[in-house]
Amino acid sequence: MKLKKHMQLILFLGIVFTPMNIKAQSDDPNTSVIRQFFSAIHDRDEMKLKSLVMNSTLKIPEIREVTPITSFQSFPSYKKENSRIIIGRFGEDYERFAFIWEVSFNDKHDKITKIKVISDLANPHMNEQTIVKKYTIKFKKDILVPAYFPFDVTHVTGKITGNEITLYYKNKDINNVLEIKASPQTKDHQIGYTPITIKNGGKVFIGKKPTGYGCIFIYDNMWYEVSIYKVHEGSYKPSRKELVKVVESMFPIQHQ
Fold it and tell me: I need a surface site. Which of 38, 101, 115, 231 has the fewest CB within 10 A?
């Protein structure tokens, strides 16, 4: 209900700011810090964000999606003075909400004193699409990604190094990682890895790693290494069975 109420208020009270007009608005001192705030978020400028907060220990909420934030809305908080509800949206057509925050200011309205997350609407899985698309365009190769995850994914990151793509799916609350590497270079099988047959009849190699399990297979002339493990002293207990389910979910469904 609370989220719905905020959405309704947006329709009547919200003013949309896009990157083109963030800095070209009124010079009203009560809104200048808001415009600077929008600009810093749009540019992902951590130094600028830190310069706008009253206390260096104030935690700036994390935006877990790399998709550009292309518009912002701001309207007064209906509960507090010196506070505004800030809305960020993803996409060129502003079709998806990124976040809803309540941002509080000092009496001069030149510093931010508090940021309360009302709703985090980022989808970290969008980061996977961005990285995979970049690899596919560059190397003309489709990459297998999982449809099943053994834990709730809170963060997705990745990188392209040479002709190798690496994806990391993480849950930072329980310190666990699902890691996928793919490249056209065939490597040696890991010592101790044994072959197993998965549901589609294909053969993969699976074995124990220091803090989890790993799986190796070749598909469409691409060498895949899929690992599931914990970092530090997390509560997560990697499972061989769960890793097999992840790998099975990566293959295209065979139609009869």
Answer: 231
What is the CB-side half-sphere exposure of residue 113 using CA atoms within 13 A? 12
**DSSP per-residue letters across 208-254:** EETTEEEEEEEETTEEEEEEEEE-TT-S----HHHHHHHHHHHSPPP
Euclidean distance between CA atoms 222 and 74, whole angstroms? 48
Rounded Cα distance, 127 and 207, in Å: 28
Strands in 83-90's sheet, in edge-to-edge order, are 15-17, 69-76, 83-90, 96-105, 112-120
Compute, in degrees rounded to 10, the torsion defined by CA atoms 189, 193, 194, 196.
-90
Distance in angstroms (rounded) separating the CA atoms of residues 37 and 22:
9
SS3 34: helix
Q: Check pLDDT > 50 for residue 112.
A: yes
Q: Which two tokens stand for residue 95?
A: 């079709």
CB-CB contact of 97 with 126 (8 Å): no
pLDDT tens digits, residue range 52-62? 999 888 999 99
d(CA 38, CA 17): 8
Half-sphere exposure of 107 (CA within 13 A, CB side): 0
Task: For the chain, report the end-to-end CA distance as a whole number of angstroms.
Answer: 45
Q: What is the DSSP letter of 177?
A: E
* Residue with the two structure tokens 């209906």: 78
Per-residue pLDDT of 37-49, as tens digits, reads: 999 999 999 999 9
Q: How confident is the model at residue 232 (pLDDT cuts 50, 70, 90)?
A: confident
